[in-house]
Amino acid sequence: MAFAARWTFVALFLANALTKVFAADTFDATYGSSPAPFKINVHPSFIDETILKVSHTRYTKDVDEPVFASGPPRHNVTTVRDYWVNHYDWFDVQDRLNARYKQFTTSVLTGSRSNFTDPVPLHFVHHRSNRSDAIPLLFIHGWPGSFREVNEILDGLINPPNASSPAFHVVAPSIPGFGFSPAPLKSGWGARETGYAFHALMQQLNYTKYVIQGGDLGAFVLQFMAADNPDAVVSVLSNFWIIQSNATDLQRYSANLTTADENAYITFLNLFKTQLAGYLYIQDTKPLQLAIGMTDSPVGFAMWIYNLMAGIVDHYEWTPERIITWSMMYYIQGPYGGMRFYKEVRREVRQYS
Ligand SMILES: *[C@@H]1O[C@H](CO)[C@@H](O)[C@H](O)[C@H]1NC(C)=O
Ligand SMILES: *[C@@H]1O[C@H](CO)[C@@H](O)[C@H](O)[C@H]1NC(C)=O
Ligand SMILES: *[C@@H]1O[C@H](CO)[C@@H](O)[C@H](O)[C@H]1NC(C)=O
Ligand SMILES: *[C@@H]1O[C@H](CO)[C@@H](O)[C@H](O)[C@H]1NC(C)=O
Ligand SMILES: *[C@@H]1O[C@H](CO)[C@@H](O)[C@H](O)[C@H]1NC(C)=O
Ligand SMILES: *[C@@H]1O[C@H](CO)[C@@H](O)[C@H](O)[C@H]1NC(C)=O
Ligand SMILES: *[C@@H]1O[C@H](CO)[C@@H](O)[C@H](O)[C@H]1NC(C)=O
Question: Whose CA is nearest to atom 4 of ligand 2?
Answer without folding.
Answer: 115
